[in-house]
Write a structure and sequence with these properties.
0% helix, 2 domains, Jelly Rolls
Length: 207
């Protein structure tokens, strides 16, 4: 196979508390890196903001993408731009900026070091229906890539090249790592729950 697959279940993810709520670390690369040491290439997390106003931790050299899952959040980047985010809307900004948030929400975070590029996309699948996607492994000249699927609502089945199916429940994460540079994988996503499913897809390229 030109790829490898890793499933990180909700119960396997680590949760930490901060002054404004909780943060769940979904994945970090390299796996032995530490968020507190700032020695990661990229990191995926989900935070619950339980206070009305907070100031983001300063992360110089890190580029951030944030997508709201529940609630609403206003982000104010001092000297740059401000935006109001509703569910499945996103913002992108430097971790070195002074950023203040207003509003209580649950969000999805992608943090990238200067060696990485990435983006987020929200995907919605109606009950009993399937959608198809394609991933190129990798899709830039950075030589390595990870295609990530986070089940934000409902349950889904994911198949690669019409082969084995992987089931994700709400809160589960699937990572597809590239092993070769000239191949691609066809991805099928099917909603298997009684309610519609929502999936956040992250595409990450790195050295």
């Amino acid at each position: 196979m030109p790829y490898s697959v890793e499933i990180i279940r909700k119960e396997e993810q680590s949760i930490s508390t901060w002054s404004g709520g909780t943060t769940t670390q979904l994945a970090i690369y390299p796996k032995d890196s530490e968020y507190k040491e700032r020695n990661f290439k990229w990191r995926l997390s989900s935070a619950c903001v339980d206070i009305e106003e907070s100031t983001f931790t300063s992360l110089p050299g890190i580029w951030r993408h944030i997508m709201i899952i529940e609630g609403e959040m206003s982000l104010q980047h001092e000297g740059h731009h401000s935006t109001l985010l509703k569910p499945y809307e996103q913002d992108s900004f430097s971790g070195g900026w002074t950023t203040r948030s207003i509003g209580r929400a649950k969000d999805f975070n992608l943090m990238l070091s200067e060696e990485c590029t990435g983006k987020l996309e929200a995907m919605f699948i109606s009950k009993g229906l399937s959608i198809e996607a394609m991933t190129y492994l990798p899709d830039t000249d950075l030589k390595n890539s990870a295609d990530v699927f986070y089940c934000a609502a409902g349950n889904i089945d994911i198949t690669l090249n019409n082969d084995q199916a992987y089931n994700l429940c709400q809160g589960d994460l699937m990572l597809i790592y590239a092993l070769k540079s000239d191949r691609c994988a066809a991805i099928g996503l099917k909603c298997t729950s009684q309610l519609d499913a929502a999936v956040i897809r992250a595409k990450i390229s790195y050295k």
